[in-house]
Design goal:
three-stranded mixed beta sheet; 7% strand; mainly alpha; elongated; three-stranded antiparallel beta sheet; 519 residues; 70% helix; single chain; 8 strands
């Protein structure tokens, strides 16, 4: 209603303004009358318009009221519905709680009943246990009286007996485990050794104790001998090598067990012959120069060896000793080649066992440095080598491996037995070392005599430089099956009782001949 009143006032104001405009604009009465008529018409139109607007607004207000009432009724219905659902859930929950309380009270009553029953049974059990303990005590007393032992003494005897039985079984089981471990360890060790040998290829060089120096002509022999033999005596005194000048054409033999001295003598003779001036003073000068050259060559050989083997941080004196090995031999086997081969074998074997291959290779290369000392000593080469390695700051495991590779020192590191095994492998290869003739003949004779100790053996021959043993048996005394057994037994006995390089093949021959003569 207020809105309608405001609109009516606005319309009246507009009409008044319009009428004022007409009044001021009219210059005549007619114009004033027309304006008054127009104003009345406008007021009537405004009232009509106001009434129309009033009706429209009233309709809108009624519609809005109806709409708001419908929404209010809908909300009330929804709220009432939710309240009803909540009340229903509450009633259901109350019923469920009541049922649970009822069941709980029932279970409590049942538990009380069970508890009373168990208490009665427990009383019975306790009573029976007391009776049983009394009977057991009486029984134990009767047993003690019969056996003459108290219960504690009998228990101790039983425990001691069980301990002895368990100890015996444990020892038997321990022995089985040890035997099995040894068998597996031997198989694995053989596998590693075989793989290591197969992967290492080393040249074998047998060195002699003489060197032949070739000449262009026999006329030079006179110059080398000199007047009354003074030149040859000077050479022998300066080099420590014996010169053998005989009827061999265009050749002089240099004889010495020291390859380094023989090399110095050979190079010195080569320079003297090339120069042509051969006299004692010149000989001493050339020999001194040659010794210096050899020393440089020794150091160069040592450096090249350690570089090829991948060994770093070696003391200069040890490098020089490694180079000196080139001019030393052991049972005819070149010492440097033997040490290089041992180092390679040690590196491969250590890698197969999961150890440090560089450390093992280092110990393998240095294991025989005691054979090339600067000064003579009474110590064995193994102990001397360990002393030198310790002096020049080598690792304790390397020192121990060097000193223990001939069992002259206790092995305290894992690589020590590896060095010992690889040293034996390198020295025992066929052709690696030269045997003394007497030792070789004795080994051949021992092989044949060993085979002849078996019954039924007629003859035995060691052939192929002792690499094969052929045994001829009497066909009447030894069967084919026994031949196989005999071959195995002889091979096992050779393996356990004899020392030999490489391997020996045992062949047993059984032959039956039927001979008749047609006359």
């Amino acid at each position: 209603m207020e809105l309608i009143t405001i609109i009516t006032g606005i319309v009246a104001l507009l009409v008044g303004i319009a009428a004022g405009k007409f009044i001021f604009a009219a210059n005549t009465k007619k114009q004033i009358e027309e304006a008054d008529i127009e104003a009345k018409r406008l007021i009537a139109d405004a009232k009509t318009t106001a009434e129309t607007l009033k009706k429209e607004k009233l309709l809108e207000a009624k519609e809005k009221f109806v709409q708001m009432k419908a929404e209010h009724d809908r909300e009330v219905l929804e709220r009432n519905k939710k309240i009803g659902e909540t009340e229903a859930k509450t009633r259901a929950l109350e019923q469920s709680l009541n049922a649970k309380n009822t069941n709980l009270e029932k279970q409590i009553k049942e538990n009380d009943s069970i508890k009373e029953h168990l208490n009665r049974q427990l009383e019975v059990v306790n009573q029976k246990r007391n009776e049983l303990e009394k009977h057991q005590e009486e029984h134990i007393k009767r047993l003690e009286k019969i056996a003459g032992l108290t219960a504690d003494e009998a228990r101790n005897q039983i425990i001691e007996s069980l301990k002895q039985e368990a100890h015996t079984r444990a020892l038997a089981l321990q022995q089985e485990i040890i035997d099995d471990a040894k068998l597996k360890a031997n198989k694995e060790a053989r596998k590693i050794v075989i793989q290591t040998i197969q992967r290492t290829a080393a040249e074998q060089a047998i060195e002699n104790s003489v060197t032949v120096f070739n000449l262009e002509s026999d006329e030079i022999k006179g110059q080398i001998i000199g007047r009354e033999g003074r030149n040859i005596r000077a050479i022998e005194a300066a080099t420590g090598v014996d010169l053998i000048v005989d009827d061999t054409p265009e050749a002089i033999v240099l004889s010495s067990f020291d390859p380094l001295r023989r090399e110095i003598a050979r190079l010195s003779l080569q320079r003297l012959v090339a120069d042509g001036r051969i006299h004692p003073a010149r000989i001493e000068e050339v020999v001194e120069k040659t010794k210096k050259q050899i020393e440089e060559q020794v150091l160069e050989i040592g450096e090249r060896t350690v570089i090829e083997l991948g060994i770093h941080g070696l003391h200069k004196e040890l490098v020089r000793m490694v180079g000196r090995m080139r001019f030393r031999s052991s049972y005819g086997q070149n010492l440097l080649m033997h040490s290089r081969e041992t180092a390679n074998l040690c590196g491969i074997m250590a890698a197969e066992l999961g150890l440090n291959p560089k450390l093992a290779k280092r110990a393998g290369l240095l294991h025989d440095i005691g054979k090339v000392p600067d000064e003579e000593t009474e110590l064995s080469h193994a102990l001397l080598g360990a002393k030198l390695a310790e002096k020049y700051g080598e690792h304790p495991s390397v020192v121990n491996a060097i000193g223990a590779h001939h069992d002259e020192m206790e092995m305290t590191y894992v690589i020590s037995p590896i060095i010992q095994a690889c040293d034996a492998i390198s020295g025992a290869r066929p052709g690696a070392r030269r045997e003394i003739m007497q030792q070789y003949l004795q080994r051949i004779k021992d092989l044949e005599n060993l085979a002849l100790t078996y019954s039924g053996v007629e003859k035995a021959y060691a052939i192929q430089a002792g690499r094969e043993l052929r045994v001829i048996v009497e066909a009447d005394k030894v069967t084919d099956g026994e031949s196989d057994k005999l071959s195995f037994e002889i091979a096992q006995k050779i393996q356990t009782e004899m020392t030999y390089p490489g391997q020996i093949k045992v062949t047993v021959i059984r032959e039956k001949r039927a001979v008749n003569v047609a006359r």
